[in-house]
Amino acid sequence: MDTYLFIVILSIAAYVLVGMFAGRKVASTADYYVSGRNAPTVLIAGTLFASMVSTNSFMGDCGWAYSGNFANELYLSGICAMGFVFGVVLFGRFLRRSEALTMPEYFKRRFNDSRMQRLGGIVVVISLICYLLAVTTGVGTLLNAMLGWPSWVCYIVAYACFMSFTLYAGSKGVIITDTMMFLIFLFGSLIAGPYMWSHTDGLTGLFRILVEKANELPQGFLDYHGNFAGAMATNAFGAVLYGIIYGVIWFIVVGISPWQAGRFLMAKSEHVALRASTIACACEVIFCTYLFFESLTVNALEAAPLAASETVMIYACYHYVPKIIGAVVLAGIMAAGLSSASTFLSVSGFSLVNDVLQLKFKDDKDQLRKTRIIMILIGLTALGLSFFGLGGVRIVTWFASTIVAASWVVTCFGGVWSKKLTAQGARWSMVTGFVTFFVCKALQATGAVTIFTNFLDPFLMAVYLSIAAAVLGSREQKPSPEETEFLEKLHVLPESLKKMSEYRRDYVYCYILIGLGIVWTCVLLFIWALPYNGII
User: Fold this and answer.
1) Measured CA distances, 177 to 65, 330, 339 (Å)
2) Which tens digits make up the pLDDT trace of 410-423?
3) Are the C-beta atoms of residues 33 and 101 closer than 8 Å to each other?
């Protein structure tokens, strides 16, 4: 058996075994939905980052950097990373205090309105089916490159893989397998880097070669604005703004999305949630930039561009590192895809059962059985859509993320910090954001309207109008006594959070994060920015 295939199969078998073991410990719906609310820092950090770093990071983002948008990826990743910390401080810790099973259920409790729960659930299901489509496509592409099987067969195999270890164990298994996968793709990618850069005389040599090949690479390849075409821009301002806008979108996504903020419902405490978020923040900046460096190696060493930019990391694994290391990286890419798929599948399944359909159950066993059936159907829906080739991994992923950001940003942050936002205002805001983004994005994609760029980007249009809808919907109303009481309870500090010793541990994590930020800024300055501009 081929070494690459053997390592990948071995890793998948390990995930299945762990999922089966974790599934045996599921005794209630709380275990299945939120892992008993007692997960430690390492597991929350692992599932936060593993859910974020999917095949989009290894394929979509690395392919975009390889195509000439390295600088834009740095803007995007840096702004996105801040969302982990700001998200838990401004929203996630309050979400955890609600003790809801799902985020749409939190909306129901916060606004004392069951319609908010169903509406929030619909947004979750639609966005996560899109995400599952992107991940299924990414994992299928990897299997196609490794095995040469037809794409449709690879998609079915991908579906079977993530379904096998998610269905039985639910969140109890997902956070463990997510952490395993996080360690695998982190280890494999870190080890592969030095082997790749040995062909370029190190990282400084890599950028020296790229500068020498500037005329052979996409225009603006190493400039602060990147390639205009890749950012759908006509000038430097538009290109930079594109990266910043999508950075803000991802900032919101990691701060409030059900597959990120929803992880805090599983955390042992708010301290655990904060510490895990600082770890995820550091990993997002450093690890993703490291991946982009690896993808640029192919630009430096290959004379002709690859036919498919999204396969750049797969190509590097086969050509620039020892076979065993390449196999571990490929297993890591597979792990990144499967970890995200397992998260998206479980969250969407829970939400469809609990929030949208609001099914009635005889007991916990009946609820678990029906939830698993729904998860199978959701997975089959994403699988069926994958056969139509609806878009690349990056395009579909970014579309799915923006649905949540556009629909929920006002409701999530306003629901915690505004005393005037009413249930009607929250509903109007969520519907307006959702519909506006879909309409503007469709008009932009068809070319029927060309104004939706820069400050009129479909996402920003959705935010503008959702804020207006929230204000109008709440203007002639006052929050009900139940809404006011629930909001006040969210801001009451629990007794368990009054130990100063726990805060001192939090400070250590924050200081380490600040230190890593300074170090990584210096790395980028001295390896890329200063030499490229002829300053050193």
Assistant:
1) 29, 17, 7
2) 999 999 999 999 99
3) yes
Residues pairing with 267 in the sheet: 39
Cβ atoms 20, 169 nearer than 8 A: yes
What angle (nearest 5°) sits at the alpha carbon of residue 267, between those of residues 173 and 421?
120
* Residue-wise DSSP of 382-429: HHHHHTT----HHHHHHHHHHHHHHHHHHHHHHHHH-SS--HHHHHHH
Locate 366 and state its tokens.
């009946």
What are the CA-CA distances from residue 384 to residues 67, 130, 356, 377 (Å)? 30, 12, 22, 10
State phi, psi for 149 to the nearest 5 degrees. Answer: -75, 160
Residue whose C-alpha is closest to residue 119's, from 98, 103, 95: 103
CA gyration radius, the chain:
23
Q: How confident is the model at residue 358 (pLDDT cuts 50, 70, 90)?
A: confident
d(CA 81, CA 93): 17
CA–CA distance, 32 with 23 (Å, rounded to integer): 8
DSSP one-letter code for 357: S
Mean pLDDT of all residues in the chain? 88
Residue pair 161/12 in contact (Cβ under 8 Å)? The answer is yes
| 24: confidence class by pLDDT, cuts 50, 70, 90 | low
pLDDT digits (tens, 9 = 90+) for 365-380: 787 788 888 888 999 9
% residues pLDDT > 70 (the chain): 95
* pLDDT tens for each residue of 159-209: 888 887 676 655 666 677 777 778 888 888 999 999 999 999 999 999 999
Q: How far is CA 152 from CA 12, 13, 60, 127, 337, in A?
A: 20, 22, 20, 22, 17
Taken in order 410, 411, 417, 423, is the CA torsion positive or negative?
Answer: positive
> How far, in Å, CA of 131 to CA of 372, rounded?
19
Residue range 115-133, pLDDT digits in tens: 999 999 999 999 989 988 9
DSSP annotation of 218 reads P
- Count the neighbouring beta carbons within 10 Å of the beta carbon of residue 489: 12
Residue 504: is it exposed, middle or buried by C-beta count within 10 angstroms (0-12/13-18/19+)? exposed
56: confidence class by pLDDT, cuts 50, 70, 90: confident
Q: What are phi and psi of 317, to 5 degrees?
A: -65, -35
**Contact between 111 and 422 (Cβ < 8 Å):** yes
